[in-house]
Amino acid sequence: MSFPKHFLWGGATAANQLEGGWQEGGRGPSIDDALPGGKQRLNIVADPNFDWTIDPSKYTYPNHEGIDFFHHYKQDIALFAEMGFKCYRFSIAWSRLFPQGTEENANENGLAFYDDVIDTCLEHHIEPVITLSHYELPLNLAINFGGWKNKELITFFKRFADTVIERWGNKVKYFLTFNEINSAAHFPVLSQGMVGDTPKKAVFQAWHNQFVASAYAVQTARRVNPEIQMGNMILYATSYAYNANPVNQLANLQHNQDFNFFCADVQVRGEYPAYTHRYLAEFGLTEADLDRTPEELALLKEYHVDFLSFSYYMSSATEITGETKDTVAGNLMGGVKNPYLKASDWGWQIDPTGLRIALNELYDRYQVPVFVVENGLGAHDKVEADGRIFDSYRIDYLREHLKAIEGALEDGVPVMGYTPWGCIDLVSASTGEMSKRYGFIYVDLDDEGKGSGARSRKESFAWYQRVIATNGANLSSDDLDY
C-alpha cells in the first residue's frame, strides 16, 4: 500500500463554525460571533466603520448555533468513528475557556466540555488534533485591546495555551498553534482579530506577536510531554507564473515568499528569512519599525514547530503585466484565472496536481513532516426523495487530491495525514452559509438556520469509509454500499 501504515485519516472542523452554544456554559463572545451571516459578511466587517456590535435586529448570526455540536458531539464523533477516522482535527474556543480572554483562571464548565469531547474521541480510538486558535479570538481582546498587534495578547494566549496543553497534553499528541496564520496578508480580521483600519505595520507586528506566542506554546509542550508534536498551520495556494515572461516569474517567486512561505519560515526555521527586509520595504517599513526583542528572537529560534500543516483548496496564478484581466474567487483571496483549470460552485479553481507540487515545495524547503489538515469541495447538495445524497462530484474531487498525496509520498515526502475540511456540514467561514456544504455527513439546516438538524450519511461517507478501511488502496467509488 502506498499510504503509510499509521497514516492519520480523519476530518477537520472549527469550533466557531459548528459548535453553537455561544452563550452556554459561561462562554463569552468571540470575534466570529460578531460576523453577520450572508455572502457579504467579509465585505461588511472589512469596512473600518463596522462597530462589531452584535445586533440581531440588523443581521443574522448563523455561527451562534452552528450545527449545535455542543449538544450533539457524542453522536457526531460516533459517526466519525463509523467512517473509521484515525484522527479528528478540531479547535478549542478560546472564549469558552476564558470568556473575556483576560481572566486568571479558566472556566470550569468549558474545561469539562472539552474533557468530554477529547475522552469521547479517545473512546472511539480517534486521535484528537487540536488547533489552539482558529479564528476565535475573544471579542473583548479585539475591541478593547486591538487584537494581536497588542503585545499583551502574548500573555493572554500563553495562559490559554498553557491551560490547554497542561490539561490535555498527556492525552493529546498533536497540536496546531494558529490556523491559516498567513491569511492576515489579505484579511487580518479573522486570524489577527484586528478591527477598524489596519495598516501593514500592525499586521507585521501582530504576526511577530503570534510567532512569539506560538513559541511559548511549543515551550510548554516540551515541558509537559516530550511526546507532543506541535505544528503550525498555513493557508497554501500553489502559485504559478501566468506565462514565461521573466517579470511574471520574478513576481511569482516574491508572491510565494511573501504569502506561502513567510510565516512558515519563521515558525519552522525559527528565524526571519533574508527577504524580510524586501517584503517590509514594499510597504515603506523596515525591521526597526517592529517591536522585537533579542529575547523573543532567541525564543523563536529554540522553540520552532515539529511539523508543518496546511490547508489546500486551490492554486493561483501571478500576472502583473496586464496581459489578462480575467479573475476568479478563492479562499480569502482571488486571483488571475488559470485557463487550464475548472472551478467549484463558488469559483475556486480545482487543481489536484497543485497539491502534489505544494507537498514537494514545502518538504523541500523545510525538511519536516507535512500534514494536509484542510482540503475539500464546497458544493450544493441535493437530498433525494428517499433521503439519500449522491455527491459523486465531492468523491471525484477528494479522490484526485488523494492521488496527488499518493504521488507526493512516492516522491519521498513524509505526509502525516489527511483531514478533509468540514467532514460534517457546518457554517461557511467566508459566506456564513450552510448551503456551501463540504461534509460526508449532511446536516438538515438551511442558510437561515431552519431545519431539524438531523444528520444523514452522504454517498461520500460510504466512499471515505472504504478509503480508510483499505488505507487508501481503494479510491474507487464503484459498488459502494450506499
Automatic annotation (TrEMBL):
Name of protein: Beta-glucosidase
Keywords recorded for this protein, A-Z: Glycosidase, Hydrolase
Family as reported in the entry's similarity comment: Belongs to the glycosyl hydrolase 1 family.
Record InterPro entries: GH, GH_1_N_CS, Glyco_hydro_1, Glyco_hydro_1_AS
PROSITE patterns assigned: GLYCOSYL_HYDROL_F1_1, GLYCOSYL_HYDROL_F1_2
CC annotations in GO: cytosol
Gene Ontology MF annotations: beta-glucosidase activity
Database matches in Gene3D superfamilies: Glycosidases
Active site (record annotation): 374 (nucleophile)
Taxonomic source organism: Lacticaseibacillus manihotivorans DSM 13343 = JCM 12514
One BP term from GO: carbohydrate catabolic process
Classification via PANTHER family: 6-PHOSPHO-BETA-GLUCOSIDASE ASCB-RELATED (PTHR10353:SF122), GLYCOSYL HYDROLASE (PTHR10353)
